[in-house]
Design goal:
264 residues, elongated, 2 domains, alpha/beta, Rossmann fold, 9-stranded mixed β-sheet, 5 helices, Ubiquitin-like (UB roll)
């Protein structure tokens, strides 16, 4: 009959469990210490400064917006979220925030003088102004109005940013861009050289708005520039050309290739 296990035979088990218990204890201590460090009462941010020279944006508005969007402490603050909040302010084209040890945030701003106003066609309730900050290099004499359903907001803005330089290069300035719920595009443009109040409409219809705008501006520079004061409306819903409705009520079909009946 085997002899009973004595106390010294258990030592290998104790040697294996001892370090494991020590490791678990250390991890628990580190978890508690980390939790204490990350609590909002520690490493608080005491100062937010705007280090850019400002001409378009009020410094106080920037600082108040930064404080409102601040969550957490020096270690946990979500700087990306704060930057997005600042870039939602009118005339703030780009915001960059960096930490300065031990308790400060520094904000750098790229301003823009170019703004567009977005209006949601499906918004219920009182209209709320929502501004789109355009690239600082974009020079517009007035604030364009962009209209679309909320779901189409980004589609509209992206198309507008591509349309605008094409129109401007032809001596035109977008005053209003509409994307209807049915998917039709409609523009209202100003003639740059004709003085204030000289506008006409461009009915684009559905699909390929940038291609159609490029086709129109080519024809405008070639044949219509000198007669822009007389244009009332342009219909781009043709396969290869477009139709012009003059302010006196007359119509004229212009062929860039062979103008056909409206495609829509």
């Amino acid at each position: 009959m085997p002899a009973p296990v004595t106390g010294p035979a258990l030592n290998p088990v104790r040697r294996r469990t001892g370090p494991l218990i020590a490791l678990v204890s250390m991890l628990l201590i580190m978890a508690v210490a980390t939790d204490q460090v990350l609590r909002s009462g520690y490493f608080t941010i005491d100062r937010i400064t705007v280090d850019s020279a400002l001409q378009q944006v009020d410094r106080g508005v920037l600082e108040r917006s930064a404080w409102r969007s601040l969550g957490g402490n020096y270690l946990t603050a979500d700087l990306d979220s704060m930057e997005r909040a600042l870039e939602a302010l009118p005339r703030v084209y780009r915001a960059s925030i960096r930490r300065i040890w031990p308790d400060s945030l520094s904000i750098a701003i790229v301003e823009t003088a170019a703004l567009a106003r977005f209006m949601a066609l499906d918004r219920i309730g009182p209209e709320v102004d929502e501004y789109v900050n355009l690239p600082p290099t974009r020079r517009l004499t007035s604030m364009p109005v962009l209209k679309a359903a909320l779901a189409d907001r980004h589609t509209l803005i992206d198309a507008f940013l591509e349309m605008a330089p094409v129109l401007i290069s032809a001596g035109l300035e977008p005053a209003e861009v509409v994307l209807t719920r049915a998917g039709d595009w409609l523009l209202r443009v100003a003639v740059s050289h004709a003085g204030a109040g000289n506008f006409f409409e461009i009915l684009i219809g559905r699909g390929e708005p940038l291609l159609k705008i490029g086709r129109f501006t080519a024809g405008f520079v070639l044949a219509l520039h000198e007669h822009s004061n007389a244009i009332g409306r342009v219909d781009m819903r043709y396969a290869n050309g477009f139709a012009v409705q003059w302010r006196n009520g007359g119509d004229q079909n212009l062929q860039l290739a062979r103008a056909t009946a409206p495609a829509e």
